[in-house]
User: What shape does this take?
Amino acid sequence: MIFCRLLSCLLLVGRSTAAKNAEILALRHEVAVLRRQVQRPRLSWADRAVLTALAKHLPPVLRRHRLVTPSTLLIWHRRLVRWKWRQTAIRSGRPPLPQETVALIQRLGTENPTWGYVRNQGELRRLGNRVAAATIRRVLLRSGLPPAPQRASQQTWRTFLHTQAHTLLACDFMHVDTVFLKRLYVFFVMEIATRRVHVLSVTAHPTGAWITQPARNLLMDLDDRAGRFRFLIRDRDSKFTATFNAVFAGNGTTLIPTPPQNPRSNAFAERWIRTARTECTDRLLITGERHLRTVLDQYAEHYNAGRAHRGLDLRAPDDDPNVIPLPATTVRRRQVLGGLLNEYHPTPPRPPYRSQETPSSAA
Assistant: This one.
């Protein structure tokens, strides 16, 4: 900026006095116009330095009518003095909590909505953190978490799904258009905890009676495990009649209708529909009900036993989570649906071949 100002001064030397006076008058008028529009301009430190240096060469009368007056220059000087002699403020009181402790308090408050401040204090002490209950209250309120009674009453649908996943079933309908432009409907049920899918029935004319009998068959197939499921999530379709509700009510299962126009309330079933379409039905030409039932039976078997799931630590629903497979020397591929899907299974290494010793060699 200094170089540009010096260069402009050198250029002004060659100009006539009349031109300079005309430019000064034009600049004064422009400044007057801008002052009517801008109440308080913002100046940088470079602008302040240039105006301070040029103000020394102006007559005292002209200094009072500038954008920067002598009083403003004195204010800038006092600010510089304060900035030079300022000291870092020393905060009084207790030192702040470490970020790890704050994150742990927020985690305990979020994951345990029924825990009060003293209960969180006791849990933190067991984990080796001595924090006062008032501090825990302040941290939780700052994070937007109300006291325990309010947090317990504000249970969201997502929290309900996570806490009750092992007792939840979800059902829904899926439609597939055949090669002859005929629409078929598929009724399926999913176990939320294990993501296991049961394809119950396929038809072109869905009715209330059509889904009632497959519901009875499902409870018979579940046998002893049927008593574990306390809730069934379904939408508000008219095909879910009172007879269908009575089948699960006899098993002690409570039916929970999803809110209107809220597919996220049945997110697990909706996700399976998208997965089945992406991996299976959208890549095949379906000819009829029998063909679709065969395809979906094979895909459900692959989904339950041969497909890794993100929500299950990259395991299949039928995999034993306590078994760690040993490394295999040979990996074999099994094609599903004519090569549309692939499953890979390890083959354990064969034991080394031992030749049988003859009696004469042993002797």
